[in-house]
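User: Predict structure, ligand 6-O-phosphono-beta-D-tagatofuranose.
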Amino acid sequence: MKPSIEEIEFHGLAALRLNGPKGSSAVISKLGAQVLSWVTPDGRERLFLSDKAVFDGSVAIRGGVPVCFPQFSDRGDLPKHGFVRTREWSESARRSGDDYALVTLETSDDAATRALWPHAFRLELTVMIEADRIDLELCVANTGEQPFAFTGALHTYLRLVQVEDAALEGLYGHEYRDAAQGNQICKDSGTELAVDGETDRVYHQVRRPQLLRAGNHSLAIQQQGFPDLVVWNPWVAKCAALPDMSPEGWREMLCVEAAAADTEVALTAGDEWYGRQTLAVV
Ligand code: TA6
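Assistant: Predicted complex:
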């Protein structure tokens, strides 16, 4: 079957399904431009989507790849992770060829966003799948006449069989802020990060790729443009406090996020910025 793009309903949401080469597929919801599923040719779902996720737009959908903008987490006065996760985005491009399928969704400022954040912007999220990889590219344009600065992330929830059996390689020697330990600044000294408790780390200036080793679910992860990389797992107690997670949900997920979390991105009037995360089967 040739790659194609179709309009579907997913958990009651208007969404686009990318049918990629060799049976690969991805689903992106227009609510939040959130990728909610990525299936590789081996038939495996690679993204975690909570079985208690809420799809009515009242809160962000727990799972997939939420787009956080113009604020990362609660490090500012705006709603946590900004305000585009619960906005309706619209399709602005779609293309497919023999070996790929691609869509772009966009959103821009309006009276509601300007009431929270007084800047003119346009965001585009482009998702492309090839047989064994997915590329997510966020473009931020300053369409106003004043400079602005933002933080944000592609808050990717990766699906795992069991997080205790996974390890993330490639962060050795990097400085990180440990948000689970009072925001102390540390240096990663292990060859791999094994998640064995609540983990919430913002790694700084990450330019090397990572390898998530996880049995049959291993992935290569690479980012461009985004200065930081966040690793998050709520573990047992924090997970139990999240109403849109089932008690065991923490075990099946690890967020590895391409982020501008601790370093703001500054954009002058008329300027554009691109950040990308690539996940590839290894
Ligand atoms: O990226 C990690 C983080 O900022 C964590 O501190 C955690 O709170 C998580 O994001 C989820 O945030 P959310 O608003 O989706 O519950």
